[in-house]
Specification:
Elements (H helix, E strand, L loop, with lengths): L2 H14 L5 E8 L2 E7 L9 E8 L10 E4 L33 H13 L9 H9 L1 H15 L1 E2 L2
Helix pairs in contact: 3-4
Protein name: UBC core domain-containing protein
Organism: Trichogramma brassicae
InterPro entries: Ub_conjugating_enzyme, UBC, UBQ-conjugating_enzyme/RWD
C-alpha cells in the first residue's frame, strides 16, 4: 500500500469516526494535519481544547510523524515549543515507533499522555520533579495554565 493510500484511509477514518475528544483535519495538504484534542477526564486538562500540528514525513509509515502542540501545555513531557517526549514518536532502538502504528493510535496515546505524564522521560525536568514530589501543586499549575492558554470545549 502506498503512503498516499494509507494516509487517505487513515484520515478518512479519523474524520468519519474520530476517537472521543480528538478532531483531525488536513490543513493545506495530506502531509500537514491540524489536530484538536480535548484534555482527558479526571486530569488537570479536562475540558480544555488543545491545538496541535501533525506533519507526515515522506518516509511515513517507516518514520514517525512529527507532532507538536500549538497550545502551550504545562506538562513534564511537553516543552515550551510544543515538542513532545514520547516513546511512540521516536525511532527504534531507543523509541517505540513501528510502521503498524496508525495516526489514530498515536493521537489517542498523546491524549493519554496528557492525563498520565511520564516523569521518568521528561523534557521539562523541573515540572517532572514537581509532578513526582508535589503532585497537588503540579495539578494546580497545569489547570491554571490550561485555563489561561487553552479553549474550553463545549
Amino acid at each position: 500500500m502506498s503512503k498516499l493510500q494509507r494516509l487517505n484511509r487513515e484520515i478518512k477514518r479519523l474524520v468519519d469516526h474520530p476517537p472521543e475528544g480528538i478532531i483531525c483535519y488536513p490543513s493545506d495538504n495530506l502531509s500537514n494535519l491540524s489536530i484538536n484534542i480535548i484534555g482527558p477526564h479526571s486530569s488537570p486538562y479536562e475540558g480544555t481544547l488543545f491545538e496541535m500540528e501533525l506533519e507526515i514525513p515522506d518516509r511515513y509509515p517507516f518514520v514517525p510523524p512529527r507532532l507538536k502542540f500549538i497550545t502551550p501545555v504545562y506538562h513534564p513531557n511537553i516543552d515550551n515549543q510544543g515538542r513532545i517526549c514520547m516513546d511512540l514518536l521516536k525511532m527504534p532502538p531507543n523509541g517505540g515507533w513501528r510502521p503498524t502504528i496508525s495516526l489514530e493510535n498515536l493521537l489517542v496515546a498523546v491524549q493519554s499522555l496528557l492525563g498520565n505524564p511520564n516523569p521518568d522521560d521528561p523534557l521539562m525536568v523541573d515540572i517532572a520533579e514537581e509532578y513526582r514530589y508535589n503532585k497537588q501543586e503540579f495539578e494546580r499549575k497545569a489547570r491554571l495554565h490550561a485555563k489561561e492558554n487553552g479553549k474550553l470545549s463545549s
